[in-house]
């Protein structure tokens, strides 16, 4: 069957769409792929009488999100926390540090993975730690690899996201070590941090996590959902060492921005957990 005109048009449209995609969305070349705002793309520039370089991009676009990110004080050189020499893993909702940093964490991975998040993390240099369920990591490896390529760290959040508290050592070890093994095979690096599903853990969890290679178990001090920060501690302001929890959900762009603003209001700078837990 020869190509009909309709088919040729379809092919041309597809090609154009691919060209457009390759110009403006995520690709393997993560560096230097942005055209600076305002760069003329045609020989005859359109006169823009009142156009100023500070014109705000349209709300909801990637450039808008990037434009809303506050300017942070420079992060201090990390001073890693003291870890117990032989386990079990410590459990922290706030790292025991005085340095003026807080930590952004993103959990799960199976529900939603907004593509713009990869560019946002890169453009705004947002340090993020991802606690992934291993089946989601396996199913969407490329997505998480791209976040890793722009500086994100991948950590362990079990296989099946069931509550661990009260379960046997063997069960908990299988959930934690099984996910660590899978994440190590997918990303080439064994996780060194663990977060229990729903935060539900007991002494067995901290022992099993340590035995599976976790240096610490992370709870959280704030949650962020649909652009709102909810404080879980009495201070109602982000404290040095705080851990902010959000999820791979549709509003992750808003959640990242809300977390950044809350950290900035507190006079802190976002940092990576693995720079402090070594
Ligand atoms: Zn979770």
UniProtKB/TrEMBL annotation:
<dbReference type="InterPro" id="IPR002509">
    <property type="entry name" value="NODB_dom"/>
</dbReference>
<dbReference type="InterPro" id="IPR050248">
    <property type="entry name" value="Polysacc_deacetylase_ArnD"/>
</dbReference>
<dbReference type="GO" id="GO:0016810">
    <property type="term" value="F:hydrolase activity, acting on carbon-nitrogen (but not peptide) bonds"/>
</dbReference>
<feature type="region of interest" description="Disordered">
    <location>
        <begin position="40"/>
        <end position="59"/>
    </location>
</feature>
<keyword id="KW-0378">Hydrolase</keyword>
<feature type="domain" description="NodB homology">
    <location>
        <begin position="100"/>
        <end position="278"/>
    </location>
</feature>
<protein>
    <submittedName>
        <fullName>Polysaccharide deacetylase family protein</fullName>
        <ecNumber>3.-.-.-</ecNumber>
    </submittedName>
</protein>
<dbReference type="GO" id="GO:0005975">
    <property type="term" value="P:carbohydrate metabolic process"/>
</dbReference>
<dbReference type="Pfam" id="PF01522">
    <property type="entry name" value="Polysacc_deac_1"/>
</dbReference>
<dbReference type="InterPro" id="IPR011330">
    <property type="entry name" value="Glyco_hydro/deAcase_b/a-brl"/>
</dbReference>
